[in-house]
Design brief:
Largest sheet: 7 strands, mixed
Oligomer: single chain
Shape: globular
Structural class: alpha/beta
Strand order of the largest sheet: 2-8-7-6-5-3-4
Mean pLDDT: 95
Number of strands: 12
Strand content: 5-15%
Number of helices: 14
């Protein structure tokens, strides 16, 4: 039985370009990038080249890119580093942020910082008016994700950044789901900080980056070394940087064509589900201007997400019920609850996320398996 992988929002297959780029720095060029001999200089040159390539994809300067272990660390560093640098004040986030942002903000609240959580509408969108209404001079940071990892809803981050800056606050966005999928320009967004994670666009797991605009004060979370211009201690992962740069460069080069292809697969699949399976409901929107190309989230009356996912897995279809970082939790999705779903409806949600390796045959096989599975579960 062939397996259909529709969980690309959780992770993507490693690109051949990334694997090839990494191989050299796992074997021949193995030096520490901070060593002053030939091997170290070769590693340092590779690190600088990767940093420049990544910066170019976002319209940033190379010195504004700081390497991390992934999106979770980047989000934690953005919020906590800014809070430590500022010393006091209030953070504003949305109710649908990734756990890395949401829990970081809650931790800051326990440490004495103020916290405001913005509501979202029924499709998961933050309102610029709602942000403007809670802003004052006490807010030092606004953090709203570029697009949601469960529903694919794209937030109006440029408008939100303008509001934040109007009150003298920094603006951070978690761009983990948009990087490599849609054009991302830090200047067009107006971001002061932006997080990304390599494995979402065909790079290696365990590697990411944080864009920090020149002049932004940010305290380090990793002490003990002068790596990353003294802001993040720890031996540099040269192979990870090379693989990430290669994957992102490839993703950006094919972005226009591949995103259109992925969106067509998702839209066709979604139409068949909504038309062909009774009691199927969409969580979010299919509006191309306001949703990611590959993510779609459904609920099916009378069926829990866990039983549906288990049954789909037996049918050879890999999907999920939300953030992989929340896997194993029995609690309903915080994102879907914030959108107005009941706990029972939120527990029934299933996310299908298409990626660059998926085909029309994958979409057809997934729909057939889903149709069979829903009918079987309802007939018990």
């Amino acid at each position: 039985m062939d397996t259909v992988y529709l969980d690309n929002a959780a992770t993507t297959p490693l690109r051949r370009e990334a694997e090839a780029a990494m191989r050299r720095y796992c074997s021949d060029v193995f030096g520490n990038a901070d060593s002053r001999h030939a091997y170290g200089r070769a590693a340092a040159a590779a690190l600088a080249s990767a940093r420049a390539d990544i910066a170019r994809c976002f319209g940033a300067a190379p010195e504004e890119i700081y390497f991390t272990s992934g999106g979770t660390e980047s989000d934690n560093w953005a919020l906590k580093g800014a809070a430590l640098a500022h010393g006091r004040g209030r953070v504003v986030i949305s109710a649908v942020e990734h756990p890395a942002v949401y829990e970081s903000a809650r931790q800051l609240e326990r440490l004495g910082f103020g916290l405001t959580v913005l509501p979202v509408d029924g499709e998961g969108f933050v309102s610029a008016d709602d942000l403007a209404a809670v802003m004052d001079g006490d807010v030092f940071l606004v953090s709203v994700m570029s697009a949601n990892n469960e529903t694919g809803s794209i937030q109006p981050v440029r408008e939100l950044a303008e509001i934040a800056h109007g009150f003298g606050a920094l603006f951070h966005t978690d761009a983990v789901q948009t990087a490599g999928a849609l054009p991302v320009s830090v200047k067009e967004i107006g971001a002061d900080m932006l997080s990304l994670s390599a494995h979402k666009f065909g790079g290696p797991k365990g590697f990411g980056a944080l864009y920090v605009k020149n002049g932004v004060r940010l305290e380090p979370l990793h002490s003990g070394g002068e790596q990353e211009r003294g802001r993040r201690g720890g031996t540099s992962d040269v192979a990870g940087a090379a693989g990430t740069a290669a994957a992102l460069t490839a993703a950006c080069a094919e972005m226009a064509a591949k995103s259109a292809e992925i969106r067509a697969l998702k839209d066709g699949f979604a139409a068949r589900v909504l038309e062909g399976i009774p009691g199927a409901g969409l969580h979010g929107t299919l509006d191309a201007a306001r949703s990611l190309p590959g993510i779609v989230n459904f609920g099916f009356d009378g069926i829990t997400g866990e039983e549906l996912l288990f049954s789909l897995d037996l049918e050879g279809v890999c999907a999920s019920n939300g953030s992989a970082c929340s896997a194993g939790s029995s609690a309903p999705s915080r994102t879907l609850l914030a959108m107005g779903l009941t706990a029972a409806e939120a527990r029934g949600a299933v996310r299908f996320s298409f990626g660059r390796t998926n085909t029309a045959d994958d979409a057809a096989a997934a729909f057939a398996a889903l149709e069979r599975t829903v009918a079987r579960l309802r007939s018990r």
